[in-house]
């Protein structure tokens, strides 16, 4: 999450040149476990939003 925000910020501040980022994740570490959990949560949230969009006639404003 914090990394995503930092990467997004690079482009918001008007960066014109190409930016290359590299992430090093060490196998069998807490960092790898956290990264996997974040990915799973992100996928679940995306699925939930996609379901909502498909059934937008259920939502009354």
TrEMBL record:
GO biological process terms, semicolon-separated: DNA repair
Example of a GO MF term: ATP-dependent activity, acting on DNA
Organism: Ramalina farinacea
Record-given protein name: Uncharacterized protein
Keyword Hydrolase carried by entry: yes
ATP-binding in keyword set: yes
Domain of life: Eukaryota
Keywords associated with the record: ATP-binding, Helicase, Hydrolase, Nucleotide-binding
GO cellular component: nucleus
